Amino acid sequence: MTTAAPEAPLDVLRRVFGYEEFRGQQSSIIDRVVGGGDALVLMPTGGGKSLCYQIPALVRRGTGVVVSPLIALMQDQVDALSAVGVRAAFLNSTQDPDERRLVEQELQAGEIDILYLAPERLKLESTLSLLDRVDVSVFAIDEAHCVSQWGHDFRPDYLALSVLHERWPAVPRIALTATATEATRHEIAQRLELGDAEWFVSSFDRPNIQYRIESKAQPLQQLLRLVRTEHPGDAGIVYCLSRKSVEKTADALVAEGIPALPYHAGLDAGIRRRNQARFLREEGIVMVATIAFGMGIDKPDVRFVAHLDLPKSVEGYYQETGRAGRDGLPSTAWLAYGLQDVVQQRRMIDESEGDLAHRRRLSSHLDAMLALCETVECRRVQLLGYFGQPSIACGNCDTCLAPPEAWDGTVPAQKLLSTIVRLDRERNQRFGAGHLIDILLGRDNDRIRQNRHDELKTYGIGEELSEQEWRGVVRQLLAQGILAVQGEYGVLGITQEAPAVLAGEREVRLRREPERVVKRAKSKAAAELPSEALPLFERLREWRAGVARELGVPAYIVFGDATLRGISLVTPASIEELGGISGIGEKKLEQYGADVLAVVAAHAAAGMPE
Ligand code: ADP
Ligand code: ZN
Known about the structure:
A hairpin with a 4-residue loop joins strand 15 (about 485) and strand 16 (about 490-495). This protein is of the alpha/beta class. It is built from 27 helices and 17 strands. It has 4 domains: about 10-200, Rossmann fold, CATH 3.40.50.300; about 210-405, Rossmann fold; about 405-510, Winged helix-like DNA-binding domain superfamily/Winged helix DNA-binding domain (Arc Repressor Mutant, subunit A, Orthogonal Bundle); about 530-605, HRDC domain (DNA polymerase, domain 1), CATH 1.10.150.80. It binds adenosine-5'-diphosphate and zinc ion. The site of zinc ion has 8 residues, from helix 16 and helix 17.
């Protein structure tokens, strides 16, 4: 890529990557770095961060050095760049000395445009002196939030990155992260000595992701319905809280004929690696995982992220759901949560180690998450608001699509609260939600009879609601802080907010679940494609799968879904027409152009009447 006069960034975008225009702030970020300035880039997942350093690396003289903690993914990143004709390589601990030496030679010969480096390698004096002998065009620090000690992804090796500024003051640096919180941003700037960096803060909205939260009744059935009716054949991630539920859920999906794989920290490293590789390389795999899975997974065509347990914080939830739809095509973020989640998480907080301040922080994270779950307003407005970004109702979340009703739950709340108070005062007894609901519904069972709870004033006074509805009431009273979980067995007690409710001084607004919106059974990748374009799209996918298998790379490295959609809509008849489609640059046109045109032509011929 060494040309006499530097090529303009837009020309590189079009020639190499085959994209027509820059997105959002890409252009100003790239101008800043090409001009030699530092930049701090905050952009959501899928926003297009990679091009922000890849293009300066190609435009400026020398090699761009990318520091990334994601060793397991470096091969794919290098493959993706090679596929568009960029000379890329990596140095990390997975290589043997010979492989590393080869890369070092190419580096010093100026034959590498972009080099990926693990932070623990960069720390080594041998690496630093190697870079002294190389013409470095730009330093990119990916996943820059790893430098933050307060976040959950802290990597001690990242602290050593301040050396870059001291050793190579003339080389521009660009730090990138998808972590949205203000505190983390400041910590990144400070620790990486990015005092002179210009900040580029993008909107954190992910408009192509549909956010939906429903209450948990039969979680597996609900998940199956989601996969079967909305995402047949799609790749997705299902998050569970515990290793055990990961295993159970993956088994259950497989038993239902869905290709699912487990992933959690308790699995052997080899199995983890293999499952991750299959998820990246094969199409339509559902990964069932704990949150140990996902950082840096830049598979662009994950069509859904499902949570079967309540996430611990809105930050975590947003980061996890953000792994859906990086390619900008319609995707789903779906969460099922229930009373048991609230009880369990409150208990985990009470039992957690650490001081009071720590428990308070956990507790406020949980409260924010519950507020998101129980809102009657637009989910996106609430999410973005949490990150300090004002917005208007989105039209693409469950509460916008089927607005839930708010209803006056004061009387049911009083019935429940007074049951708790009576049991406590009159008999010094405490119970969990299940038994309290049995009392309100006037049920007859051993526990009721043994305790003579059928003699209570509140016995059978709650028959106007179903059991499921009562669980909703309990859940929401917990979320609103009117009820509290006390002790180990999910025993419920009242809080200082309760007396006002009992006295009728405070109204309790509750949310009624709307009827579920029923969707067509069509994979999201094909959704919104006119039906006449579908057969060609499917044919192109088959062709792509064949090529990817032959080359041993993930399918998206050959062509992304968005590009295949473009081809099936345009049905190009010439190389020029094909080259005009987004995602087809110089190299891919040369490599695959004739084959793609042949697939299109064969398809047209097959559809021709005799
Ligand atoms: P991030 O690292 O911010 O999560 P990526 O850099 O992986 O996002 O980009 C997400 C997707 O968007 C990729 O498939 C990428 O090729 C595509 N993309 C990025 N910039 C553009 C652009 N200007 N035009 C079209 N597609 C783009
Ligand atoms: Zn909305």
